[in-house]
Specification:
The chain has 13 helices and 13 strands. The protein is an alpha/beta fold and 361 residues long. Strands 3-2-1-4-5-6-7 form a seven-stranded parallel sheet, with helices on both faces. It has a six-stranded parallel sheet with strand order 10-9-8-11-12-13, sandwiched between helices.
Length: 361
């Protein structure tokens, strides 16, 4: 049994990455002594202008919510805790927390360190992001990625100095596979998650407008919070004449609500301009819903065009419109092939131990 200190977000912090941390730490704790250090204040309000906590989910039963982005003492205490462990697991999503991790790494030089890399580089660029990423991840003994594209990017950034173990991303939510709803009123698409520029919702609206010119009018439900609360999404929908087709639900969706939404829609839409991977894809497939997506990052490693979904060229409304039409035409077969393809959380936990090169017993 190894002593493991996990440093990263877990529920009730709101995000798929926090859900990931919750599942992983609970799985690791079956065989190891795990200490979980999470965030009390993860980001300044200027960067994250909404609630950072989901009141509908249970608080991680064993986590200490002690880290504060502005408090070096909390970073130092995390590093001191890591000194007493056999392994420190860091969660890397953005260079914003570089100083936190440098303090932890400085105090844990004699401890094995592994990073779970959700994004090698951030979606919204930051100054010196490549240098900061190298400085932190280059000190780790192993890395975990959920897509070969992320592993390749890490290899390029770090010059192959740190080995990366790649393991598929399991579903963050336990969803029940439900039959497809009737197609009586046409294809119903679901867009889930934070509405950020790289996710291409505007491209999806252009694709729906293009389909409407040919008499094809699929419905789209958008569920998620805008990254910029000031963005006029309702006006953008109206400008394209899509007010009758697009249902904007600009708010956070609980896990139970996500499961209900999946049951009442035919397919999930991911019109990303760029991406490393997506936690939405394994949830959709586990629910038996095909995915209409763009061929970016690790998404194309999980979504097979014409098998369990359809793929389009990123940033191309015409290509996305074609992918939506193909999904509607092949819906029954695509849904039948939409099954869980990812490893289990046991496999992710085993990958962490493998990357650390510690005795799993």
């Amino acid at each position: 049994m190894a002593r493991i200190t996990f440093i990263g977000p877990v529920p009730p912090i709101r995000s798929g990455i926090a859900q990931h941390g919750g599942h992983l730490t609970e799985t690791l704790a079956r065989d190891h002594d795990v200490t979980v250090l999470s965030w009390q204040h993860q980001y300044p309000r200027l960067l994250f202008r909404r609630s950072q906590v989901d009141p509908t989910v249970e608080r991680h039963p064993n986590a200490r919510f002690t880290l504060r982005w502005w408090d070096p003492v909390s970073w130092w205490r995390a590093g001191r805790t890591g000194q007493e462990s056999d392994l420190v697991v860091l969660v890397w999503t953005t260079p914003f927390h570089t100083l936190t991790y440098l303090v932890v790494l400085a105090l844990t030089r004699r401890t094995r360190r592994v990073a779970i890399v959700h994004n090698a580089l951030p979606h919204e660029p930051l100054p010196f992001q490549r240098t900061l990423t190298r400085v932190v991840l280059g000190q780790c003994d192993g890395l975990i990625a959920h897509a070969t594209t992320v592993a390749d990017e890490l290899d390029e950034l770090l010059g192959g100095k740190v080995d990366t173990v790649t393991v598929a991303h399991p579903s963050n939510i336990g969803v029940e596979r439900k039959p497809l709803p009737p197609l009586d009123d046409g294809l119903r698409l679901l867009f889930l998650g934070f509405i950020r520029p790289y996710k291409g919702l505007d491209v999806a609206l252009d694709a729906l407008a293009e389909l409407g010119q040919h008499g094809v009018r699929p419905k789209l439900t958008v569920v998620g919070e805008p990254w910029d609360p000031a963005e006029p999404w309702a006006e953008r929908v109206a400008e394209r004449g899509l007010s009758e087709q697009v249902d904007l639900r600009l708010g956070y969706a609980s896990d139970d609500e996500v499961e209900r939404l999946l049951a009442t829609h035919h397919a999930v839409l991911l019109p990303y301009r760029s991406a490393t991977q997506s936690g939405i894809v394994p949830i959709a497939l586990a629910a038996g819903r095909p995915v209409v997506a763009t061929a970016v990052g690790g998404i194309a490693e999980v979504v097979e065009d014409g098998v369990n979904g359809t793929l389009a060229t990123p940033g191309d409304a015409g290509s996305l419109a074609d992918a939506i039409e193909r999904c509607a035409a092949q819906l029954t077969d695509l849904a039948a092939a939409a099954t869980t393809v990812a490893e289990s959380w046991d496999d992710v936990a085993a990958a962490v131990v493998k990357a650390a090169r510690i005795d799993p017993s």
